Here is the input.
Amino acid sequence: MSKYWSKLTKSLTPYVPGEQPKDKKYIKLNTNENPYPPSPKVLEAIRNAVNEDLKLYPDPNGDELKKVIADYHGISVNQVFVGNGSDEILSFAFATFFDSSEKVLFPDITYSFYPVYANFYNLWYKEIPLEEDFSLPLDKFNIPNGGIILANPNAPTSKYVSLDDLELLIKNNLEKVVILDEAYIDFGGESAIKLINKYPNLLVIHTLSKSRSLAGLRVGLAMGNQELIEGLNRVKNSFNSYTLDRLALAGAIAAYKDKEYFEKTRKKVMETRERTKKEMRALGFNVLDSMTNFIFASHPKVNGEKIFLSLKERGILVRYFNKPKIDNYIRISIGTDKEMDSLIKNLKEIII
Ligand SMILES: *Cc1c(COP(=O)(O)O)cnc(C)c1O
Here is the structure.
């Protein structure tokens, strides 16, 4: 605390991201980064963008990128918003769509940035408890609210809700915005983008950080009804006009154009996930059915924190949340086959 801080600053409880340690080389399975590099075409596009034009501001609207994304998803340019990572877009979305008069709803176990944003903008919120098996009790969201935000698939549980079930929730909540954070949708789920023309209250958020191997570039996007997108633009342009730099724009455009590489790497991650799941189950782990690039698991004999600490000692970083209901679980990002072999070998030694 400092006397120079504003009341707002003093009141904040910031989000704590997963470690990015520098003390030694770890097998890093803790922040759901993609184990494969970005497409070579992305790297080439970024290299080509390193030129004298960097003296000029980037396009504040990211029109070329929006066009590529709109074509990719079969929607129109004015249904797309781009931003500096989906975290930034989530923050803008809380400011754009939620008022302090009514409670925003999200699950008690979900992406821990949601309550952080709600507090930042001084919003009321209600955390809806997940079922015992971490499934989403959709009917419990059918109450008066100031908006709903869900990660689908959910993090850190890796569980996915079908589009039919979600459609019902969106349809029942037409007076308020429903935000679907689809950070992991490319690892087996079906996106709700196809519903944005049908429901003016639906905003779908995607990121290039996970399935397109670009966590370091900071690019996210939101898709929805034109009026929702216009609202996001109002907020963004009241904050910072140039959220995406020239290199990020060039790289993101190339990423969407290289569909072949995207398909290849996401399939590989899913294959490795299924194999790892099987091997962990054979070791007695309770592994949830994942539709993401990570696995959420517990073991009946050794507690989650102990597994986390033992793995860390052995040079493997996974994520552990010291939080009620999930404090016996570990979240493991899917790495390369070789990295997962090493994980399994070490888990075997830890649980005997
Ligand atoms: C990783 C993640 C994000 C953040 O993505 P960025 O685009 O890197 O900011 C948002 N939501 C969920 C659920 C995530 O897991």
The CA atoms of residues 208 and 345 lie 31 Å apart. The first helix runs from residue 7 to 11.
